Amino acid sequence: xxxxxxxxxxxxxxxxxxxxxxxxxxxxxxxxxxxxxxxxxxxxxxxxxxxxxxxxxxxxxxxxxxxxxxxxxxxxxxxxxxxxxxxxxxxxxxxxxxxxxxxxxxxxxxxxxxxxxxxxxxxxxxxxxxxxxxxxxxxxxxxxxxxxxxxxxxx
Amino acid sequence: xxxxxxxxxxxxxxxxxxxxxxxxxxxxxxxxxxxxxxxxxxxxxxxxxxxxxxxxxxxxxxxxxxxxxxxxxxxxxxxxxxxxxxxxxxxxxxxxxxxxxxxxxxxxxxxxxxxxxxxxxxxxxxxxxxxxxxxxxxxxxxxxxxxxxxxxxxx
DNA sequence: CTTAAACTCTTGATAAAGTCAACGATTAAG
DNA sequence: CTTAATCGTTGACTTTATCAAGAGTTTAAG
Lengths: 155, 155
Prior knowledge:
The structure is a homodimer of 155-residue chains.
Chain A (H helix, E strand, L loop, with lengths): L7 H8 L8 H20 L6 H10 L7 H7 L4 H13 L3 E6 L2 E9 L1 H21 L5 H15 L3
Antiparallel strand pairs in A: 1-2
Helix pairs in contact in A: 2-6, 3-5, 4-5
The structure holds a DNA duplex (30 and 30 nucleotides).
């Protein structure tokens, strides 16, 4: 009776000392997997997923992103942006506008109702973030935000 | 001529002040996207991907994980572990052993050559991590590791 | 001005990853 | 012994990722 089945907590604990558990790559992968699952649940009542939420957020940011810029900032292929914007546009949440300066590009902007939905969605993701970081102090949370953004945007 | 095309650096800079860029959820998603792309390139010469590398790493950890435990720790479905282990086993890098205490479970352990390959792979991922965190001081790197592991394993 | 090259969005094909239900073998509970 | 639960596995299915090519637009060169 050396190795008992092991509950969730037990299993995790056994591998905490493994080399893998110390790798940033693994830690971010696991964090984002858990976080995105939680965020998707919270966004479900609004008929949004993390992806569509991210697009909506940038569309409502006042920065007037083009689809190309959305793809780059979200680490997606430009062809993946198309159906995301299609869906949001079909719901009247965002608008495609030809960029006057370069009619190849299409600027994505949030509509009135898009901004209203984003406002609700933002509260949902903020709640998810609060749950995720509950174990950290406010100072630690800001430290984490700062360190992560420095490696997410290095260049 | 207000909005010029915008290079990569330019685009990112424009959205740094957006609400989205301040969300942990987004920062971890972007970090892991960039990190896993870089890690996959570095692991390619060894015919490994981040996924198979993670399984190999735990198989060589001395913790004798079952497939169920691998799935849970790696945030994967148990059915996704099967082809990963199949592949590693086919290359003679790991072994499936029936757990004597519970013959339903199969313990995955690294072979001699599995450990040799893991040793090389570990150096590759360590190099990738060094590149990713180049902008942080040693102290900051350890702080990030600590904060991330606390939210990746809260419970 | 004209032509060629480069860029943006879009489509479509294909591969990879994620989700879920069900099955045989095994173990645990009653 | 019977029933329920667990583990690995398979298969079907959906979603996401990757890539090439095309139509329209802009830029640069000649």
